[in-house]
């Protein structure tokens, strides 16, 4: 009968060890997720609007499924598609095994099982190819925008070893069971031919390889919420559920058209961001979706002209200091915030929809609340307050520029004449 033989060659004791390790990895994962979830809750509550989710659904399809923004960089786009599609398919494959074996629902049987084998082999190859491209890009330092860290390299190698491990186990299984439908796993079948008479991949080594593979998988599960792999979960949530805003709209804590000075003074709402808890919960979550890809830096005019601002740094600093209670200014300097031109290029480039402008402007308002202002900006505001113009010229000289140009003035007489006409 054609069916999956889960835990082939694995003794009862080893299965117990397996489930114990699985439980530990899952608990570490849940704790990591819960920890970040509690940190997001430090922010001001901004409720999910289901109308926003509906609007975002189309965007979700383009950004998460089709990965349009990532495709702009061709090689990187191929790498990310292969890796992510492969990862999702392998994850679904594992869930089906759990349903079949642990929940006793007979799924992986007959023809369905054969299709399952082919599909998983194909996506397994895509996954490995994607991870390999990522490793080569990093080894050759082919993208200037990337941060190159040992930690990121280790994560890629972890994914690669897991992918290869799965195929090794499949190869040994097919080589020793010689099942008639082995060919339905093309990669496993090819490996099974290569493994003939190789003692390292003999049936006696199966339990060893099985444990090695399982341990690497559990390490991966456990580290997801503690590394940038967390974006696998947070990026889709952020893209699907973040509050919808028209490009260029500035997020204000009050309505400029209706607010009065008095109301503003008495307003309980947070005017500017001075502490982590002054951000909204969605803003905090969005920083956890950052993949550190550097696309925002590479299009930022301030960063490119060597001003003291890196939008990626702003995002990652908020993310990394989320557990702190001290003032934002202790880790993000006023000059960083004041260097932003609010051009929006970073927001446009970000593949996970982080809104850097809202983050930066909120913190800038926080600076103004604490009377921290650039001298130039301060002088300009003083001129507006005193002379009603940014140049500081007297009110009486306001129309001087139009002398001799015969520009009609909007005085009472002219307005009446134009009405009559
Ligand atoms: S909005 Fe600010 S941070 Fe973003 S790209 Fe423009 S200058 Fe840079
Ligand atoms: S903020 Fe967006 S564009 Fe910038 S590094 Fe993070 S994910 Fe990339």
From TrEMBL:
<keyword id="KW-1133">Transmembrane helix</keyword>
<dbReference type="GO" id="GO:0005886">
    <property type="term" value="C:plasma membrane"/>
</dbReference>
<keyword id="KW-0004">4Fe-4S</keyword>
<feature type="transmembrane region" description="Helical">
    <location>
        <begin position="82"/>
        <end position="101"/>
    </location>
</feature>
<dbReference type="GO" id="GO:0016491">
    <property type="term" value="F:oxidoreductase activity"/>
</dbReference>
<feature type="domain" description="4Fe-4S ferredoxin-type">
    <location>
        <begin position="281"/>
        <end position="308"/>
    </location>
</feature>
<keyword id="KW-0472">Membrane</keyword>
<dbReference type="InterPro" id="IPR017896">
    <property type="entry name" value="4Fe4S_Fe-S-bd"/>
</dbReference>
<dbReference type="Pfam" id="PF02665">
    <property type="entry name" value="Nitrate_red_gam"/>
</dbReference>
<dbReference type="InterPro" id="IPR036197">
    <property type="entry name" value="NarG-like_sf"/>
</dbReference>
<dbReference type="Pfam" id="PF13183">
    <property type="entry name" value="Fer4_8"/>
</dbReference>
<feature type="transmembrane region" description="Helical">
    <location>
        <begin position="113"/>
        <end position="135"/>
    </location>
</feature>
<feature type="domain" description="4Fe-4S ferredoxin-type">
    <location>
        <begin position="328"/>
        <end position="360"/>
    </location>
</feature>
<dbReference type="InterPro" id="IPR017900">
    <property type="entry name" value="4Fe4S_Fe_S_CS"/>
</dbReference>
<keyword id="KW-0812">Transmembrane</keyword>
<dbReference type="GO" id="GO:0051539">
    <property type="term" value="F:4 iron, 4 sulfur cluster binding"/>
</dbReference>
<feature type="transmembrane region" description="Helical">
    <location>
        <begin position="16"/>
        <end position="34"/>
    </location>
</feature>
<dbReference type="InterPro" id="IPR051460">
    <property type="entry name" value="HdrC_iron-sulfur_subunit"/>
</dbReference>
<dbReference type="InterPro" id="IPR023234">
    <property type="entry name" value="NarG-like_domain"/>
</dbReference>
<keyword id="KW-0479">Metal-binding</keyword>
<feature type="transmembrane region" description="Helical">
    <location>
        <begin position="155"/>
        <end position="175"/>
    </location>
</feature>
<dbReference type="GO" id="GO:0046872">
    <property type="term" value="F:metal ion binding"/>
</dbReference>
<dbReference type="InterPro" id="IPR009051">
    <property type="entry name" value="Helical_ferredxn"/>
</dbReference>
<keyword id="KW-0560">Oxidoreductase</keyword>
<keyword id="KW-0411">Iron-sulfur</keyword>
<keyword id="KW-1003">Cell membrane</keyword>
<keyword id="KW-0408">Iron</keyword>
<protein>
    <submittedName>
        <fullName>4Fe-4S dicluster domain-containing protein</fullName>
    </submittedName>
</protein>
<feature type="transmembrane region" description="Helical">
    <location>
        <begin position="207"/>
        <end position="226"/>
    </location>
</feature>
């Amino acid at each position: 009968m054609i069916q999956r033989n889960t835990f082939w060659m694995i003794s009862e004791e080893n299965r117990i060890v397996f489930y114990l390790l699985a439980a530990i990895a899952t608990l570490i994962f849940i704790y990591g997720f819960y920890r970040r979830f509690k940190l997001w809750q430090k922010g001001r509550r901004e409720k999910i609007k289901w109308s926003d989710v509906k609007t975002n659904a189309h965007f979700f399809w383009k950004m998460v499924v089709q990965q349009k923004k990532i495709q702009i960089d061709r090689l990187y786009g191929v790498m990310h598609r292969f890796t992510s599609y492969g990862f999702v398919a392998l994850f679904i494959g594992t869930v089906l095994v759990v349903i079949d074996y642990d929940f006793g629902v007979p799924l992986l049987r007959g023809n369905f099982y054969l299709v399952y084998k082919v599909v998983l082999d194909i996506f397994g190859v895509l996954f490995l190819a994607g991870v390999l491209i990522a490793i080569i890009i990093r080894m050759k330092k082919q993208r200037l925008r990337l941060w190159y860290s040992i930690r990121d390299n280790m994560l890629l190698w972890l994914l690669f070893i897991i992918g290869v491990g799965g195929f090794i186990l499949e190869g040994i299984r097919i080589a020793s069971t010689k099942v008639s439908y082995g060919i339905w796993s093309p990669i496993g079948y090819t490996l099974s031919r290569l493994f003939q008479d190789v003692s390292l991949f003999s049936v006696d080594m199966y339990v060893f390889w099985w444990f090695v593979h399982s341990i690497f998988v559990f390490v991966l599960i456990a580290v997801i919420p503690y590394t940038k792999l967390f974006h696998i979960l947070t990026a889709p949530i952020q893209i699907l559920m973040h509050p919808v805003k028209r490009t260029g709209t500035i997020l204000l804590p009050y309505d400029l058209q209706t607010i009065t000075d008095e109301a503003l003074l008495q307003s309980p709402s947070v005017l500017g961001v001075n502490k982590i808890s002054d951000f909204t919960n969605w803003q905090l979550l969005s920083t956890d979706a950052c993949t550190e890809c550097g696309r925002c830096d590479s299009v930022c005019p301030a960063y490119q002209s060597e001003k003291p601002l890196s939008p990626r740094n702003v995002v990652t600093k908020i993310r990394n200091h989320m557990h702190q209670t001290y003032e934002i200014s202790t880790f993000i300097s006023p000059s960083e915030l004041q260097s932003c031109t609010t051009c929006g290029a970073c927001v446009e480039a970000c593949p996970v929809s982080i809104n850097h402008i809202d983050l930066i402007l909120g913190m800038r308002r926080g600076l103004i609340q604490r009377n921290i202002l650039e001298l130039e900006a301060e002088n300009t505001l003083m001129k507006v307050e005193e002379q009603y113009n940014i140049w500081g010229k007297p009110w009486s000289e306001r129309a001087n520029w139009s002398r001799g140009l015969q520009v009609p003035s909007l005085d009472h007489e002219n307005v009446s004449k134009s009405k009559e006409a």
